[in-house]
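Quick start: what a row looks like.
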Amino acid sequence: MILRARMVVPVSGAPIPDGAVVVHGNTITAVGTFAEIRAEHSGEVTDLGERLLMPGLVNAHCHLDYTMLRRAIQPQRSFTEWVGRINALKRSLGPDDYRAAIVRGFAESRRWGTTSIANIESFAELMLDMPASPLRTWWFLEMIDVRHQVPSEEVSSGMLAFFEPCDARRGGFGLSPHAPYTASGPLYESVSESAAKLDMPVMTHVAESREEWEMFRHGRGELYEFMLRVGRWMEDCQHGNTPLRHLFHHTPFGARWILAHMNELDDSDFTLLASIPRHERPSIVHCPGSHRYFRHAPFRLAKLLELRMNICLGTDSLASTHSLSMFDEMRILADREQWLNPADVVAMATLHGARALNLNAGKIEPGALADLIAIPHDATMRDVHAAVIANRQPVAWMMIDGQILAH
């Protein structure tokens, strides 16, 4: 199949006017101008007209369980109050509510051009009869042991029970110890060992809020008091560590790790990250909409890019943002960080997210998976990547794994 478009945006290379992409099976085999491609390749031509053809978007951090909570929680006085509020709402919901939320979340994500999504699954039992995902989906099993420390063998058997009924032919599975304040050091150690054996990625929330930073750094604050009341063992908060250094003490994370948020970092954290060999450094997921909702400290993007960290984007959940559109996330980031090259913003929503998932996608080049979308081409904007970020129209054409998805 040959796909022709007014503009092809490879992400891994310069935009190509009057471009074309050759797809064989589920793989891209060639890309260039239409004249070049037509001279060297035969096959059926699908002409996408005055549209821009680009890689599908990659949502590197999402909680589809909470799709029904859009605008249900107004911004709270503190992050800890928000935690209390969402926990209260969750007690009023049942499995059918969560299952319907996931289906709705997939539909909204697809509507806005997401072809791959990393979803944190809080309720393993939902996977027993979950409809097949229309998107390339990674299911990350959320793990919490606030009141007790789970032995390693129980962690391993519990993980296997979660994964056995799951269908992830286009995606995969991962582990997600929730955060340093809800997952114990021994749990992180067990997860790290099991993930290495099973060759799975690990995603965890870390350094998300100032309250988490105060809890570990100073052994005080609103989150500290909240966790103390619910029965968490708090002696690990007496050593003056930051959340990131606390995590690294228990688990020297590597390239298969994805750290969500990373909003509260100090100089010692950057020194720690710099000490990790580049090929072993974790990816970092920034969620601009959720970050704005919580009014977190400014995200240290420039410093993290200086360290050449792989920065990707996610939506987080609709309990702390208003949309599952990665176009919205790109716009929020571009508006806040106007020094950023628009091409780099688009790469964070495509190529970098795919890299975090060890997925050969998020780019248009030979050998990459044929996960593609087409959006209107705005010829009034000189910068093609800025035009991508500015798109506010639902995505009407999408291909995943070399198959065009019907609407």
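That is the whole record. The chain has a mean pLDDT of 93. The first helix runs from residue 34 to 40.
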